[in-house]
Amino acid sequence: MSQYTDSAKELLEHIGGKENIAAVTHCATRMRFVLNDPSKANKEKIEAIKLVKGTFTQAGQFQVIIGNEVATFYNEFTKMAGVQETTKDDAKVAAKQNMNFLQRLIAHLADIFTPLIPALVVGGLILGFRNVIGDIKMLEDGTKSLIEVSQFWAGAHAFLWLIGEAIFHFLPVGITWAVARKMGTTPILGIVLGITLVSPQLLNAYGVAGAEEIPVWDFGFAQIDMIGYQAQVIPAILAGFVLAYLERWLRKVVPNSISMIVVPFFALVPTVLIAHTVLGPIGWQIGSFISDVVYSGLTSAFGWIFAAIFGFAYAPLVITGLHHMTNAIDLQLMSELGGTNLWPMIALSNIAQGSAVLSMIYINRKNEEEKQVSVPATISCYLGVTEPAMFGINLKYGFPFLAAMLGSMAAAVISVASGVMANSIGVGGLPGILSIQPQHMLTFAIAMLVAIVVPFLLTIVFSKTNMGRNAFKRFGAR
């Protein structure tokens, strides 16, 4: 008998039995169930299982936090329960039965941006490192940067831009590939479509405003502007979906004997034409409108109110999955303004959640069993991954989650009121300071300190009173 057998039996019983499981898979730390009837899952009894660190529902999936041993436990569970293993993609498809229209829309955005996150993180770190060596006057009495006194670092600074440009300027290639991958169509066609949006023969998107004359494709009876869409998010998403739906339709109507020739040609060529005549300009205008509204709201006299609301509400957005929408807004702000004032608040929210868990480690310092969850959760949270902290500790007790939200709110107000801007996204938590523009790093460091101290102290205060618990219950969290 395996050490996980008893826990697997308990989980199967409290999940509603084998007949209630439509699909089950796992990720790095969690079991992901698609349930035929989610109401049959007894959350209280599941969370009482010794191996379980917490539960939550997201994107139509009932997720059970197990920890690093989830892969071994998953194998034992599926064998004991007699259920078939399911891929993550199959589980996502099955989960749609439990999702409304908005949830499906958010899930689509998540599916597009999630595969891009590793590249965005790398790009953020690289641009942050270039900030440090290229823009901070740290040498010769604060008059010169590292690249101004060292040829090696000057060369490294120039070389690293090769990667940074590939990730952020050519982002549409990744987006159109991700859309094709998600829709089950031909990924290479998505890549080719993305390249046509950022081709060197096009006028760079960053040079449009200052261009004296925009080159055109002249067809005699009509002309099309040769404008690139470097770093543009919405035009790439729209073009990617048009290509995917057109390819899927063609595969239904074109005979298999000629589909290899006909489908790629009649899917790609019309999509590229539509992308440069309709989708690109419209998507650009939509993106510009969204970025203008967000930036104007954050830099207005009432920007601190927006910051307070966003800082307080971001963690609950993570629970619902709505936070994936901010990726598109951040990237749009970067393309339009050369930076984003939204991402700093996200990094501060990560830190605040980790600080609340750190406080719980202090409060429950004699609880060795809980430390197995709380210590790794704090570390991952400070590095930008909040789910273990939120679902494993903060939501379990309730009041640490509220303390983190309040600390995040205070830090966000400081960040926005001081005009803090990030050059890139993807680097959250404490390393997030590397993505901040050099002139704002000191202010952001102060906001980080607030995000560490305020949640830590509030969690201790709430633990000694009923104030935090009662306030959290009024928000309907538990």
UniProtKB/TrEMBL annotation:
<feature type="transmembrane region" description="Helical">
    <location>
        <begin position="158"/>
        <end position="180"/>
    </location>
</feature>
<protein>
    <submittedName>
        <fullName>PTS system trehalose-specific EIIBC component</fullName>
        <ecNumber>2.7.1.201</ecNumber>
    </submittedName>
</protein>
<dbReference type="GO" id="GO:0016740">
    <property type="term" value="F:transferase activity"/>
</dbReference>
<dbReference type="Pfam" id="PF00367">
    <property type="entry name" value="PTS_EIIB"/>
</dbReference>
<keyword id="KW-0418">Kinase</keyword>
<dbReference type="InterPro" id="IPR050558">
    <property type="entry name" value="PTS_Sugar-Specific_Components"/>
</dbReference>
<keyword id="KW-0762">Sugar transport</keyword>
<keyword id="KW-0598">Phosphotransferase system</keyword>
<dbReference type="InterPro" id="IPR013013">
    <property type="entry name" value="PTS_EIIC_1"/>
</dbReference>
<feature type="active site" description="Phosphocysteine intermediate; for EIIB activity">
    <location>
        <position position="27"/>
    </location>
</feature>
<feature type="domain" description="PTS EIIC type-1">
    <location>
        <begin position="107"/>
        <end position="478"/>
    </location>
</feature>
<feature type="transmembrane region" description="Helical">
    <location>
        <begin position="258"/>
        <end position="282"/>
    </location>
</feature>
<dbReference type="InterPro" id="IPR036878">
    <property type="entry name" value="Glu_permease_IIB"/>
</dbReference>
<feature type="transmembrane region" description="Helical">
    <location>
        <begin position="402"/>
        <end position="422"/>
    </location>
</feature>
<dbReference type="InterPro" id="IPR018113">
    <property type="entry name" value="PTrfase_EIIB_Cys"/>
</dbReference>
<keyword id="KW-0812">Transmembrane</keyword>
<feature type="transmembrane region" description="Helical">
    <location>
        <begin position="442"/>
        <end position="463"/>
    </location>
</feature>
<dbReference type="Pfam" id="PF02378">
    <property type="entry name" value="PTS_EIIC"/>
</dbReference>
<dbReference type="InterPro" id="IPR001996">
    <property type="entry name" value="PTS_IIB_1"/>
</dbReference>
<feature type="transmembrane region" description="Helical">
    <location>
        <begin position="187"/>
        <end position="207"/>
    </location>
</feature>
<dbReference type="InterPro" id="IPR011296">
    <property type="entry name" value="PTS_IIBC_treh"/>
</dbReference>
<keyword id="KW-1133">Transmembrane helix</keyword>
<dbReference type="InterPro" id="IPR003352">
    <property type="entry name" value="PTS_EIIC"/>
</dbReference>
<feature type="transmembrane region" description="Helical">
    <location>
        <begin position="302"/>
        <end position="322"/>
    </location>
</feature>
<feature type="transmembrane region" description="Helical">
    <location>
        <begin position="105"/>
        <end position="129"/>
    </location>
</feature>
<keyword id="KW-1003">Cell membrane</keyword>
<keyword id="KW-0472">Membrane</keyword>
<keyword id="KW-0808">Transferase</keyword>
<feature type="transmembrane region" description="Helical">
    <location>
        <begin position="227"/>
        <end position="246"/>
    </location>
</feature>
<feature type="domain" description="PTS EIIB type-1">
    <location>
        <begin position="5"/>
        <end position="87"/>
    </location>
</feature>
<keyword id="KW-0813">Transport</keyword>
